[in-house]
Amino acid sequence: MIAVLLTGLALTLAGCSTGDDPAPPATAAAPGPPAGTGDPALGVLAPLPPQGSREGPRICGKTESVPVAGGRYEVQNNAWGANTPQCTTAFDTGFSVEATHAKDSGPAAYPSIVVGCNYGTCTRDSPYPLPLAEMGDIRSSWAVTVPRRGDFNVAYDVWLDPTPRREGANTGAELMIWLDRTDRVQPIGSERATVEIAGARWEVWTGENHGTPVISYVREESTDRVIDLPISEFVGDATRRGVVKPGWFLTNIQAGFEPWIGGGGLSTDAFSLTRNGI
């Protein structure tokens, strides 16, 4: 009798069933963000959207742009640096690029997806221009496809200004976050330091572009996808380094490519950006 009781107790403590019902199956843990692309402890605030249709308006004008995702984002062709043809097809989660650039002295264009106010075009319900004192937690997720040929980078472009600027060129600073690049392409200025942000190491480059300070963070290990990347942490680091001033405004955030040679096949497959989880 004692042996029977001990056996029953052991089964109970082990969570086993002595009846006919099978034990419930084990539940696998949900996968977290890829290593080095976000802070899992804070939770995913900018999840990648499901990739839907890649059909949408095709824009070919140098400065032509079009709203996507109900106006939450704006896709711009932005073929500012060369006269070679470029067209961008915009869809709700991103865009794809058609181009055959042949420029070996700098970017031919910056096809990109934009949040905020850029040269008079402002995205729907955007809080930008936003005082840096009210910046909050800005995060982005972004997945891209890049071709095997050509010269280009994959980079965020964050613009800051001493005023709540909605039109014209920003005069404060340009902050870039490079996720990938080909060997010949490098940022403006020179490398000054390294820093760890979001579990990854970044080279910190500083310089000037026609008198405007530029700070670029170049990921030491390139990637074609980030999840929950804390954009606001890069702005905070640039502020601590004195490149960005605390009293400035964040006017817009862009994510795109700077093709030098080629450009065809560059694609943003999915993109999202949130502030304080919204």
The average pLDDT value, as a whole number, equals 88
Number of helices: 2
What is the makeup of the main sheet?
A: 11 strands, mixed
Uncertain residue ranges: 1-36
Anisotropy-based shape: globular
SSE-based structural type: mainly beta
Helix content estimate:
under 10%
- Assess the beta-strand content as a share of residues: 35-45%
- Cα distance, first to last residue? 62 Å
Rg (C-alpha, Å): 23 Å
Strand and helix order: HEEEEEEEEEEEEEEEHEEE
Tally of extended strands? 18
Write a structural description.
The chain has 278 residues and is mainly beta. The protein contains two helices and 18 strands. The strands form two sheets. Strands 2, 3, 6, 7, 8, 10, 11, 12, 13, 14 and 16 form an eleven-stranded mixed sheet that branches. Strands 1, 4, 5, 9, 15, 17 and 18 form a seven-stranded antiparallel sheet that branches. A hairpin with a 4-residue loop joins strand 2 (65-68) and strand 3 (73-76). The longest helix has 12 residues, at 2-13. The model is unreliable at 1-36 (pLDDT under 50).
